[in-house]
Design brief:
Layout: E1 2-8, E2 13-17, H1 22-31, E3 38-42, H2 48-59, E4 63-68, E5 71-75, H3 86-90, H4 97-106, E6 108-112, H5 125-133, E7 137-141, E8 144-148, E9 156-158, H6 164-175, E10 180-184, H7 190-201, E11 205-207, E12 213-217, E13 227-229, H8 234-246, E14 250-254, H9 262-270, E15 274-278, E16 281-285, E17 295-296, H10 308-316, E18 321-325, H11 335-341, E19 345-349, E20 352-356, E21 365-367, H12 371-383, E22 386-391, H13 393-399, H14 403-409, E23 413-418
Parallel strand pairs: 2-14, 3-13, 9-10, 17-18, 21-22
Antiparallel strand pairs: 1-22, 1-23, 3-5, 4-5, 6-8, 7-8, 10-12, 11-12, 14-16, 15-16, 18-20, 19-20
The chain binds uridine-diphosphate-2(N-acetylglucosaminyl) butyric acid.
Length: 419
């Protein structure tokens, strides 16, 4: 069993280079299935979700050539299988993007029902509603999603709730459909724009990504032949911004898109931290105890749920009592039990939690309950007095590239140990 061992407290100081966005990469890779050709993808985060997605693509007939640890060439000319490796697809959430892209390319696909972090109920009814509106038939058989269509014909799909995954999936299905697909009440996250940019670079005709209404004019073929670089990871950048504040450190976070982080910047300023933007770098520092604040997670451009546990660490150490309302996931406060083992005073009930600020956290043995909980526990370990051991690292490795190396570069005393 692997664990991270962190001895603190250490203020994080120095410069850090943000990797490509996980949630963009895990959609762009399935999107390559729409291309009858070869493309090159750069700035891919080297994380386990990306490596598994590459294996799944190979199982469907794609040829993948790793040019370096963050760049691949994908040849999707010969997609000869319509049953995705079931065990692999069950391992993570984003395998549902195979449905939209394979419906587009081969009009047929079978995948294992998607897994991923346990954050409460994760239905895919909006995805299915979209595929059916375009003419597909979708059935769940023995825990697998089986989707097929004679042909896909563009239609208007109104999303009952803002869903990142359903917006991307319907966009994927619409690319090679006949006619125009319109997605109303679409999600607007930066990676939705990134995936639309990727598809347009390869020959698609998608307009309006990043707004409430996305219009996809179907094309007959994506030729590829282009190189595309994945957008920097908004959540990794935000993780380090909040790490700087929690540890009362001083970080320059490079290779990020500051516009994607405006709500984090605003929250950091509200709690008494400092933020300076310089091109694609963000300088964040904090030399006092942060002020209390209330946070409500919302779809973009609101405060991202994927940074909720990380700001939870900041508010655990703030002056006064703060409240976080989680409006996206049912069970995103599991990490609070772990933080309480470290001396935090958090009462979580349902979708809200009360954080009574404490002066110090203390090292303890804790379990990463999901990916972002893991990132929060690393920040907590860096801030805590004494030694923290973090278990369940597979969650963290799904989404952060070289996490302990990056924290070590910033001064953290952190080691990965195999027991
Ligand atoms: N929802 C439905 N029906 C659907 C789809 C979603 O009811 O068909 C509900 C969900 O249950 C949830 C809400 O709508 O309450 C939003 O879910 P969304 O579809 O936006 O989430 P997702 O696409 O499954 C992605 C990220 C998550 C991130 C959310 C919200 C990927 C692979 N995952 O999930 O990332 O929390 O958007 O921003 O892109 C993470 O990176 O740690 C992570 C969990």
């Amino acid at each position: 069993m692997e664990k991270l061992v962190i001895t603190g407290p250490t203020p994080l100081k120095g410069e850090i280079f943000v990797s490509g966005a996980k949630n963009s990469a895990v959609a762009i890779l399935p999107a390559t299935l729409l291309i009858d050709g070869i493309c090159t993808i750069k700035n891919l985060p080297n994380i386990s979700d990306v490596r598994i997605t590459c294996e799944i693509l190979e199982g469907l007939g794609a040829k993948i050539n790793w040019i370096d640890k963050n760049t691949i060439e994908v040849d999707t000319r010969d997609i000869n299988n319509t049953i995705a490796p079931i065990d692999l697809t069950r391992k993570f959430r984003a395998s549902y993007y195979l449905i939209g892209s394979m419906l587009g390319r081969k009009k047929e696909i079978e995948v294992g029902l998607p897994g991923g972090c346990n954050l409460g109920a994760r239905p895919i009814d909006q995805h299915i509603k979209g595929f059916e509106a375009l003419g597909a038939k979708v059935e769940i058989i023995s825990g697998n999603v089986c989707a097929r269509a004679e042909k896909l014909i563009g239609n208007t799909v109104y999303m009952d709730m803002v869903s990142v995954g359903a917006t991307i999936n319907i966009m994927l299905a619409g690319v090679l459909a006949e006619g125009t697909t319109i997605i109303d009440n679409a999600a607007k996250e930066p990676h939705i724009v990134d995936i639309a940019n990727f598809l347009n670079t390869m020959g698609a005709d998608i307009r309006g990504a990043g707004t409430d209404t996305i219009k996809i004019n179907g094309v007959t073929k994506l030729k590829g032949g282009q190189t595309y670089s994945v957008v920097p990871d908004q959540i990794e950048a935000g993780t380090f911004m909040l790490g700087a504040v929690a540890s009362r450190g001083d970080l320059i976070i490079k290779n990020c898109v500051p516009e994607h982080l405006e709500c984090i910047t605003a929250k950091i300023l509200e709690i008494g931290g400092n933020v300076e933007i310089n091109g694609d770098s963000i300088h964040v520092w904090c030399d006092t105890k942060p002020n209390k604040a209330n946070v409500k997670t919302l779809p973009y451009p609101g405060f991202p749920t994927d940074l909720q546990p990380q700001i939870g660490v900041v508010l655990s150490l703030a002056d006064g009592t703060s409240i976080i309302n989680e409006s996206i996931w049912e069970s995103r406060f599991q990490y609070t039990n772990e933080l309480n083992k470290m001396g935090a005073k958090i009462t979580a009930q349902g979708k809200s939690a009360i954080f009574e600020g404490v002066d110090n956290l203390y090292g303890a043995s804790v379990y990463s309950t999901d990916l972002r909980a893991g990132a929060a526990l690393i920040i907590a370990g860096v801030c805590a007095t004494g030694t923290t051991e973090i278990y369940n690292l597979h969650h963290i490795d799904r989404g952060y590239e070289n996490i302990e190396e990056k924290f070590r570069l910033l001064g953290a005393n952190i080691e990965r140990i195999i027991e």
